Amino acid sequence: MKEQQPVGPKDIELSSDELHAALDKIWASPRGFIGWFRNVYHKPISTRMIITAFIFFALAGVLALLMRLQLAVPENSFVGPDLYNQLFTVHGSTMMFLFAVPVMQAMGLYFVPLMIGTRNLAFPRLNSFGFYVYVIGGALLWVSLLLNIGPDTGWFSYVPLAGPEYSPGKRVDVWAQMITFTELASLVAAVEIIVTVFKLRAPGMSLNRMPIFVWAQLVTAFMVIFAMPAVMLASGFLAMDRLVDTHFFNPAEGGDALLWQHLFWFFGHPEVYIIFIPATGMVSMLIQVFARRPIFGYTAVVLSLIATGFLGFGLWVHHMFAVGLPQLGQSFFTAASMVIAIPSGVQIFCWIATLWTGRVIVRTPLLFVVGFIFTFVVGGLTGVMQAAVPLDLQVHDTFFVVAHFHYVLIGGAVFPLLGALYFWFPKMTGRMMSERLGRLNFWLFFIGFHLTFFPMHQLGLAGMPRRVYTYLPETGWGNLNLIATVGSLLLGLAVALFLANVLVSRKSGVLAGANPWGADSLEWDVPSPPPNYNFLYLPTVNSRTPLWTKTPDQPVVTGMRSDILEVLVTSLHDATPDHRHLLDGPSYWPVLTALAVGIGIITAIFTPWGITIGAVLSFLALAGWFWPLGEPIADTSREAGPPIQEAA
Amino acid sequence: MRPGATLDVSALPATAFGPRTTIWWGVVGLLAIEGTMFGILISSYFYLSKNFSTWPPLGTPPPDLGAASANMVLLLASIWPMRAAHRAAFKSQRRPIWVALAICTAIGFAALALRASEFRAMHIRWDANAYGSIVWTTLGMHTGHLIASTLENILLMLLMRAGPVERKHFVDVNVNAVYWYFVVLAWLPVYAIIYFAPRAL
Hints:
The structure holds 2 protein chains of 2 kinds.
Chain A: H1 16-26, H2 32-38, H3 42-71, H4 81-116, H5 124-146, H6 171-199, H7 212-243, H8 257-290, H9 298-311, H10 327-339, H11 341-357, H12 364-387, H13 389-395, H14 399-429, H15 435-461, H16 478-508, E1 556-558, E2 566-570, E3 577-582, H17 589-603, H18 609-626
Antiparallel strand pairs in A: 2-3
Chain B: E1 6-8, H1 22-49, H2 66-90, H3 94-120, H4 130-162, H5 167-200
């Protein structure tokens, strides 16, 4: 390490007002219409992602209500079979690919840099690119639905139904390319999270001091990296089968329909945990704050997250018990499916122990956490039931499965997410959400949820298949279906109430201050909402609950440049300061690159030349992205290493 | 108000190489994704092979070895100039870097020309049967990487030649080399499986 003086003004020489003004200037979001597209800061981009995801959540919720209205009474003719097929396909695809995964990642992209004490994500422009790719993919799906060419083969688009023979037209191609977009965006976010967590943590935040939410995001990001390629390839195979006559899934020419199921579920099962693990991270954070004590069994909880991440890859075949597998395979995947209940159980016991030994304060976020534990345990139990092959064969493709996965997905992810938003909303906006509306919101959501989905267990056991647009009166399924429909209307009302609470509180909520809950993690150490640069001085950390153990002489980091977009890079394991790193600033190249990719992928729905067009456009955009603009921004005098030798 | 206790980092360097940097980890993440892609392609290859009584299917000879083997030698040889660029990046020497990248670019073009004949050497089209589909897709995937990596080499070569060069661009040369090694090394299992599995299975 060489001793070198920085050229710009040192932060330590400025008063805190001057430093604030300097950082505000250099980290400012670009203004105006064009400026909106050039923004690369993690909080504005993640906020857009969260809002976009909730728009998709609301839209897919409306589709669910349409389905429930259709099923309310037997032989209903409210929607026909073709539209019904599009409704459940777009509902499921939207909820999984456009809401659940993106919103969980967006929460990570927003809060991870704050929780680990840095100023932005490791690759700010890449993050912006990921957002636009996600928006284009979502728009593709929904514009298709509005044009009545929405996909209609279910969210997992099984072949041969989704193949060229049984699904002519472009509906399935839209679905396959939507997958390409969303998985690309998801992979981008995963790399962002991993590198940010590995390299940008505040000094002192060794791996074993990271907030559990950060651990959860890290484990999830690794799962994304190893799971998403499977579905990208599978949907690529499907698109090629449909467009250029390959035979991956065509049994007549040596292809295999089960290959699709293997590839899809090799992604599809980890996907469930990709949604669930960040939610458990949120729960751990919330419980710690509302029990007013550090979480019980930090190490056990972290190891459970990692174990879940590994085991999540060993379960995919339990979605395929009905296809006729070798018995040894069935036994293995049954055992694995039961084993994964263990780490989830360990976490639940740690949460109960934390609450038991803490001084519990009941607020809306904690209500949602308790609602989560209750609901998820029910969903987990039906999960263990279905891990047994004989029972699974009985309930396969019935409403019992629909009940089960809504219990684990809404119970396991949406309950914690809503609790988390009640919890972090004051940080994001500077204002508290209404507690009165919040409690009403919770009870409406909780009752609406169970009223909707509990009867579906019985409907499934009574033999009602999923994905049928109507049923006969003689089946006797009418009453339970009507109850479920009433419940779904309550659930819709609860979501509307949540959105109303957000809108009202944003304008007129009680001012929150920096740390309204008396919480422990670093994001509560900065003003609400946080400035674009997050921390005036980068913090240092001395425990797992830094704000609770902060001493008056806890050092802050100084010597950072206040006139360029500089962050501190630290070592992977112990987070000791290593070097200072200049981040990229606002740029319109990410959105242009996303458009180039988008044009290519959407054209590829119609002609294979789309790939070539997209590749050429993307290369041009990437060249523009990386080519330096004239004068170097950084002064080279302070840089380590030998002087740069000229080319000639 | 000025802070009390401080941790002064002003003496730390402003650039670093290898695993100390964010970009290196970013490329490792990319390689993990790409590696998984190749892994799944190869799994699909063997999965589909079980649907045929002979592999390759009756009437299709195994792929010719000439062009592919030449390609492997060529790609392995390219590690040497890329290694030179890699080392020169540590010393911030522009000229050796762009010369080395120019050699790698030439090798990249030669490898792509050979690759074109490799597709013919499969003796089958992608739309004939599942065997044709998977070998074309696997070869195509590696070819896509080869094209992308060659374009990247050209871009960095032009930048090193024309400038303006900042310190961080030497880090880019460094990670570009890591990516190239991956493209070369990924060819070994792909080559072994596409060309020798039909002879061994």
